[in-house]
Design brief:
mainly alpha, 2 helices, elongated
């Protein structure tokens, strides 16, 4: 639930930002999801 809330907040922020045309839509969503996955992996300590 935390990840979904964070993702919604970031998508809302991106809506008002200049995103390159090639990344609009699913592209930017996948990039944000990947960065969130890396962050949560770091929080759990798996990357040690």
């Amino acid at each position: 639930m935390l990840a979904i809330t964070i993702m919604a907040g970031i998508r809302e922020h991106i809506r008002f930002s200049d995103v390159p045309k090639s990344l609009q839509g699913a592209g930017i969503t996948l990039l944000v999801a990947g960065i969130l996955a890396l962050a949560f992996t770091g929080f759990t300590g798996i990357g040690k």
